[in-house]
Write a structure and sequence with these properties.
Blueprint (H helix, E strand, L loop, with lengths): L3 H6 L5 H9 L3 H33 L3 H17 L3 H31 L4 H4 L3 H14 L1 H21 L2 H21 L4 H12 L5 H18 L21 H25 L3 H4 L8 H19 L2 H15 L10 H9 L4 E3 L13 E3 L8 H4 L4 H35 L9 H24 L5 H25 L5 H21 L2 H6 L19 H18 L8
Antiparallel strand pairs: 1-2
């Protein structure tokens, strides 16, 4: 409401245009273009990853092929038009998203409660969830599952003490088991399974350590009551009135929640592909109206999200937990084949019955699997998949257009192709768009992270790089060019440094003395915007006070 109308009033096309118009010179625009590419690329990788999940689930093809199929849809929407075309495409796609979210949630609420207004009706289900959780906390079967996962975690910690030796030991054990089964004409299924396990052994100690540390974290979580989830009736884990460890956990989770909200809200005001949407409205008042309607329609979905969480959790506890493994629904095996990190079940205590701790549901899967978890008709499952695909496609369209515009208009054309015709710029931007899309598809195919952390990281980067200098530049005439440059560089630099310092790949190649020493105030890397925004704000104000106010276009 505060930022978009002012940007629209300046009749500009991209966010880097604003920084050049407001502060003058080449560097503010160049830095803004680079920051736009960084945060938008992080976001578009997450969207293409989601496209691959949905396409592979719908068509039954491999995940990588699903990415390429979805990418074709993204490029089709982006190639056939420019910003205005993408904007109207997103309007149609959001209608699909709205229906795909609200219909299954309302249907599920009506099925459980007889009231389709899920956001109002679901409160009565919280007591049922609390009762089921209380039963799970004292269940002997659940306690045995937690104990077994704790033993696995202890075994992994022992292996991490000497990774090369543990790798060699695992290789020898599997080799001997294969040799024994083949010499005794053992079961072919067992031989095939052990062969796959042997082939998937880590190639080197660095890869092995990374995989084992991720598994260790997963096992430690699943060794906790309710697989590490806080009880649904309390906002965070731990206990504010409990032991020192429980109080520390409560404060840590609360602080991370508030930090993430801070980054998401400020990041929304700084995401380039969102702000450029308001350049397509006819007037400043139209931009304000557009923002208001945007918030209304987004609110329809966001207010229903807590209801979805409660209704789905109740369905899982009532209809999945306690079911025999040979009677589990087919959709579990189908989703597990798409990506085992999204959904997996394991009879770790060998009782043949699925316990709550033996079920792993990835956060990226909850919405897509809602109809199947709730037992809704197949047509609703198709609608949800279409809505998820529309969401990913609409966002990816805007992101790719933002990146290609930043590359062509703000970096290449502004420096080398000043005399290029409009047709040449359009052709170059389309080639750039395709190149960026293929690179993002390659990165998404590596499955280096889940969707939610990548999206949150993009919001943190946008908030850190743009919001301090942009907001101050709009409302304070004293901001100088050097202040804006210092603010953008400081904010983006601090956020990137904190995120990369906690990347396993960076930790492997960069000396630890150059990286951040643990978590700052216990905040997770996705909330790096907390530090980036403060650094950018401080740098913008201080440098603007210390540098002469050069004549700039306001």
């Amino acid at each position: 409401m505060l930022v978009a109308p002012h940007l629209r009033a300046m009749n500009l096309y991209t966010l880097p245009d604003f920084f050049q118009q407001r502060f003058g010179g080449r560097w503010p625009r160049t830095i803004a273009a680079i920051a736009s590419i960084v945060c938008s690329f992080t976001y578009v990788v997450a969207q293409i990853y989601g496209v691959g999940l949905i396409a592979s689930r719908l068509t039954g093809v491999q995940f990588e092929i699903g990415i390429m199929l979805g990418l074709g849809g993204v490029l089709l929407c982006s190639f056939l038009g420019g910003m205005r075309a993408v904007t109207w495409t997103q309007v149609a796609q959001y209608v699909v998203i709205l229906l795909a979210f609200l219909i299954p949630v309302s249907w599920l609420a009506y099925k459980q409660l007889g009231n389709p207004v899920a956001a109002v009706a679901y409160a009565s289900q919280l007591q049922k969830i609390a009762e089921l959780e209380a039963q799970l906390l004292v269940s002997p079967q659940e306690l045995s599952v937690q104990h077994l996962y704790s033993e696995r975690a202890d075994a992994l910690e022992a292996k991490l003490q000497d990774v090369p030796l543990a790798m060699e030991r695992d290789r020898l054990v599997l080799h001997e088991r294969l040799r024994y089964l083949r010499s005794t004409n053992g079961d072919m299924g067992q031989i095939a399974a052990i062969s796959r396990e042997y082939a998937n052994l880590p190639r080197n100690p660095a890869v092995a350590e990374q995989q084992w540390r991720q598994q260790l974290q997963d096992y430690r979580e699943r060794a906790k009551p309710l697989s590490g989830l806080p009880r649904h009736s309390q906002p965070f884990g731990g206990d504010p009135d409990g032991t020192p460890a429980e109080r520390a956990q409560f404060n840590d989770e609360r602080n991370n929640f508030l930090a993430l909200m801070f980054c998401l809200m400020l990041g929304t005001a700084g995401l380039p592909h969102l702000l450029t949407r308001y350049y397509t409205v006819p007037s400043v008042s139209g931009a304000r109206t557009s923002v208001a309607w945007t918030l209304f329609f987004i609110g329809l979905i966001y207010l229903s999200a807590p209801a979805l969480a409660a209704l789905i959790k109740l369905e899982v506890m009532n209809n999945l937990v306690g079911v025999r493994f040979d009677e589990l629904p087919n959709w579990i095996a189908q989703w597990a084949r798409v990506d085992a990190s999204l959904l997996s079940v394991e009879d770790i205590n060998r009782d043949g019955i699925l316990q709550f701790g033996e079920l792993r549901l990835g956060a990226d899967l909850i919405m897509l699997a809602t109809p199947e978890i709730g037992g809704l008709p197949y047509v609703v499952a198709g609608l949800v998949a279409a809505g998820g695909l529309a969401a990913a496609l609409s966002t990816a369209d805007g992101l790719l257009l933002t990146i290609s515009n930043a590359l062509v208009r703000d970096l290449i054309v502004s420096r080398r192709l000043r005399q290029a015709s409009s047709e040449q710029r359009v052709i170059l931007s389309k080639f750039m768009l395709m190149g960026v899309a293929l690179l993002a598809a390659f990165v998404a195919g590596q499955r280096s992270s889940d969707i939610l952390p990548m999206v949150a990281a993009s919001f943190s980067l946008a908030a850190s790089a743009f919001v301090p200098a942009m907001v101050l530049g709009i409302f304070w005439r004293g901001v100088t060019r050097y202040g804006a440059i210092a603010g953008m560089l400081s904010g983006l630099g601090v956020a990137l440094y904190y995120m990369l310092s906690h990347s396993l790949w960076v930790q492997h190649w960069v000396p630890s003395i150059l990286l951040a020493d643990g978590l700052w105030w216990g905040l997770q890397p996705v909330s790096a915007g907390v530090f980036g925004v403060q650094a950018g704000l401080l740098a913008t104000v201080l440098v603007s006070w210390l540098t002469p106010h050069i004549h700039q276009n306001k």
